[in-house]
Prior knowledge:
CATH topology of the largest domain: Flavocytochrome C3, Chain A, domain 1
Shape: elongated
Number of helices: 10
CATH superfamily of the largest domain: Succinate dehydrogenase/fumarate reductase flavoprotein, catalytic domain
Structural class: alpha+beta
Oligomer: single chain
Number of strands: 12
Strand content: 15-25%
Number of domains: 2
Distance between the termini: 27 Å
Largest sheet: 6 strands, mixed
Order of helices and strands: HEEEEHEHEEHEHHHEHHEEEH
CATH architecture of the largest domain: Alpha-Beta Complex
Amino acid sequence: GSQISNPVWVEYADEYDVNKLFEHTAKQLLQDADGRVTGVIIQRNSDSAYIQVNAAKGVIVSTGGYGGNTEMMDALHYRDKNVICNNLGCAFAAGDGIKMAMWAGAAIDRNHAGGCAFDRAAINLDHHVGEPYDSALSDIWWPGSQPWLNVNVRGERFANEDLPYDFHINSWLRQPGRFCYQIFDSNYWSDVNAFHSTICSRVVAVPGARNSEVLPNVFPCKSGEEFYNVYMAPALESGKLKQADTIEDLARQLGMDEDAAARCAAEVARYNELCDKGTDDDFGKQSKDMTPISQAPFYGIAIGSWLLATMNGVRVNLNLQAVDENDNPIEGLYMVGNDMGGFFNNSYPQMYGGTMQGKTTCFARLAALHAV
Length: 372
C-alpha cells in the first residue's frame, strides 16, 4: 500500500509547505511541569547538532516499531524473535518512538506475541534462522506463500499449507530448525493460476488489481516465462532454489540425509495420491490447492519468516493519546503506526489486505484532528 499512498502524502505535504526533516533523529520528548508533551529534541545527522522543536498542539509519534532491535525484542520477550530470517522493511526500526514515549511516562502494550510477517524469506543451505537477520530483497522468495507441499528437515509433511501467513509461520515453530522446505514441480505456472492467491501473496497479474500495476517485474507476473525470469532464475542462480530430476536427489541437495530423503519421496507419493483423490485426508487442504508433484524437473527451497513490522507498542485511548499505567492520558502525546499498541491481539488478520496500512492512515488522521 505504501507505493500507492506515500506519493499522495508527499504531494499533500508539499502543498501545505510541511517542513520535512528526514536527515534528523528524534532523541527525547519535551514536557512541561504538568507532564504535557510540548516538543521534541532532534539531532541533525550531518553534524550531530541538537535542535529543539516546539509543538503547540502536540507531538504525533510514528517511528516504525522495533523490528530492527533484537535487544528490545529480548527485553520484551518477543515470541517470534527466533523464527525470523529477514526483516527487510523494518531493519532500521529501533523502537525509538516507543522508548521516548515510555520515558515520558507512557505504558507499553504487554502483548508481545507476534508481528506482521510474510512466509517468504529464502534461507541459505546453512539453514540459519534467527539473528542476525538478512534484510536484502534478494533474500526474499515471493512464491513462499503459494500452498505447495511443505516438509520439515525429516522429510515429513506437518500442516495444511493453505494458511494465513502468520499461521503458516507459527506451524514452523514446532518443527526442527523452525523453517520448512517448499516442494513443487515443473507445472508451477498452472499451479499458481489454480491457487489464485490474492492481496500481497498474488503472483499472477490480474487486470484491475493495483499490485499488478504498481510493482512490475517484482510481482505479479503475466506468463510462465515471466514467472521463471522474475522468481525462478534468480533463486536458482543464488543456489537457494534447488532443481533435480528425482525427489530423492532434490531432498539431498536441500541438505536432507538419506533417511529424510526417503521419507520426503514417500511424502510426495502420498501427497500425489491425495491430489488424485481430490481430498486432503491428512491435513484438510482445500481441493483446488491439491496439485500433484509429478512432472520433472522438481524444485525445492528452504523458507522462513520475513518480519515486516512489530505490532505492539504504546497503549493509547480512543483519541490516540498515549496513556500511563493507570490509563491516564499524557497530554500532547499521540502514538500511531507501529508505535501504537492495543489494536492487534496475538496475530495479524491477514485475510484482509491493507489492515496495517489502513489502521496507520486512519488513526494518524484521527490523532491530528484531536490534536488541533
